[in-house]
Amino acid sequence: MEEKRGLTVKDLLIRLILIIIFIFLLIWLFPMPDLKPLNNQIFADNLDRMKDAAKSYYTIERLPSDFNTSKKMTLKEMIDKHLILPLMDSNGNYCDADTSYVQITKLENEYIIKVQLSCTDKKDYIIEHYGCYDICSNECKMLETTTKVDKTTTKGKITTTKNGGKLYEYQFVKNVCTDKFDKYVCPSGYYLVGNKCIKNGSETITKEAYKNVTNVTETDTKDAKPIVSTTDKKEPASCKVTTLTSTIDATPSSSVTDEVFKGTQTVTADKKYTYDIKGAVGTVKTVTADYIKVQNYDVINATKVASGYKWTYVSTLTSDQSNLAFTNDNEKLVLVDWWEELTCDTCFTTVKIYKYYRYRKDATEYSYSCDAFPGYEKYGTDKCRKATTVTTKCPSGYTDAGSSCTKQETTYSCSKYGSDYKLDEAKKTCTKTLGVTYSCPSGTNKTSDERYCTKNIYGCPAGTNSIGGGKCSTTTYSCPPNTSNKTYTLNGTKCTVKSKVKVCTCPEGTVQTSDKLYCIKTNSNTTYSCADYPGYTLNGKKCTKTITNQKVTYSCDSGYILNGTSCVKTVNTSSTKNAEAIYKTSCEQKYKWSTQTSINGWTYTGNKREVK
């Protein structure tokens, strides 16, 4: 009997190859089933679950109420509200709860619900349309007519009847809002006149004055000095210390600070309207008019005559002479003030100084006359006229048609488009206001009322002046320090100066020496000299000198006022702009009965009545 041998390596390889061949045959004969339809079915089932949960949640009260508005809820919000459980895709992963959502939108006569689902195996959405009967309660469904409907017209009203049933009318309601004119308002600084805003102001016109240069000859006179001889008797002058009071300008100094917050101001927001504009409909008709008589005139310039004058200040003159004042037909010099001042900073003697104002005579008023033109009458301000021929002509805009005057007149109307459209005669258009938006001007802030904005107001504290750029200036004044013979006292913007001076005088019949300290008795033999005044000539006891100077004066045209070397005139100005019309929105509820089961733009109230 032969012994059984074990498996060899060769036998094992042959058996492994046979097994592999058998597996491939099985795969070829029985392929793996297509799982894609199963995956799609899982995704579709998840979409339906979201849609059904949303439709059960969005009852009438939760639906969007306005046309073309939407409400949206994510899958996460649905899970949080316990409307649905987390959704799992075919890969065993949870779908994205933040990017998956349900959105319902109101259209004119129906709703649209959009369901979007995002999973690891697929991302897609579905849209479903449905009307009132898909979502409303039984109260809404009772409007539905399920039997055959007959429609007849009775007094302009469509009626709906059920075969063999009763006829009902249904009550509907809607809010009707209209903008009614309230008032006109103007920006700050303007005042209202009708529908216009007017702002009056003034403008200063400045131009260079006319320069006039003339030569003026004047004689300057001074007291001659006596020549003292050794035989003349010299006695001390009578001296005393006195106090002189004068005024000088105080020294200003400025400090700068920032403006401070003073409050808020309410301003009107900028309003922007949106319009629907259509061309107006024109109707042409022929209009006739009578000829008009025209009186013709010969017009010439009237004679200009000066009728009023004024004295215009030209310059200021100071002198130690008290007799310079004068007046003539064209000019005058008026003494306005005098004072005493030290002859020098270290002197104890004083001299009187006289202050004069120089004026020029200028014509200020003119009248116009027609006396030089026989047969002419005054016309306007500066014209004369005389009647000549009489002619006939057509009124402005009319054409001479032989026996009468005619013109083509076009009238425009918006009646074609309805009462909401308003006619603009100038542009020949019809305009309907669609809406209005408001915006705050630059530098202002919004308020709870969109028609108004607020603006912060800054200014300078009391006692300071604005210098622009948000800065304020404070000016203080000071006087020089006191000295041994002068004291200064601040008085507003001036300093009062009190000076202690030694004043020496001599009795009549004597003259003072040049140092003012001695008196010399004069007689017929006393001689005088002008040596202390170079260029002066001795004339008795006086020293005289003829001085020729150039006199510069300035003048202006009529209506201008001379200010230094400039001519200034202030004229009134006025600016006008359209006032802003303010409207108030007024709303009311309007009701109507209808046999129709729905009316576009109206809401069913739930009330009905039987039509008898």
Give a description of the structure:
Among the domains are: 106 residues, no CATH class; 59 residues, no CATH class; 188 residues, no CATH class. Helices cover 9% and strands 56% of the residues. With 612 residues, the protein is mainly beta. The chain has five helices and 43 strands. The strands form 14 sheets. A four-stranded antiparallel β-sheet has the order 1-2-3-4. It has a four-stranded antiparallel β-sheet with strand order 8-9-41-40, with no helix packed on it. A four-stranded antiparallel β-sheet has the order 19-22-21-20, with no helix packed on it. The chain is elongated and about 175 Å long. About 5% of the residues have low confidence.
Notable characteristics:
612 residues, mainly beta, four-stranded antiparallel sheet, 5 helices, 43 strands
Detail the topology: elements first, then pairings.
Elements: H1 9-29, H2 36-57, E1 70-74, H3 75-80, E2 101-106, E3 111-118, E4 123-130, H4 132-135, H5 138-141, E5 149-154, E6 157-162, E7 168-185, E8 191-193, E9 196-208, E10 210-223, E11 225-226, E12 234-236, E13 238-249, E14 251-258, E15 260-268, E16 270-279, E17 281-289, E18 292-301, E19 303-319, E20 326-327, E21 331-342, E22 350-369, E23 377-379, E24 383-393, E25 399-400, E26 405-413, E27 422-424, E28 429-439, E29 445-446, E30 452-459, E31 465-468, E32 471-478, E33 486-491, E34 494-505, E35 510-512, E36 518-521, E37 528-529, E38 537-539, E39 542-555, E40 561-563, E41 566-578, E42 580-594, E43 603-610
Antiparallel strand pairs: 1-2, 2-3, 3-4, 5-6, 7-42, 7-43, 8-9, 9-41, 10-39, 11-37, 12-36, 13-34, 14-32, 15-30, 16-28, 17-26, 18-24, 19-22, 20-21, 21-22, 23-24, 25-26, 27-28, 29-30, 31-32, 33-34, 35-36, 38-39, 40-41
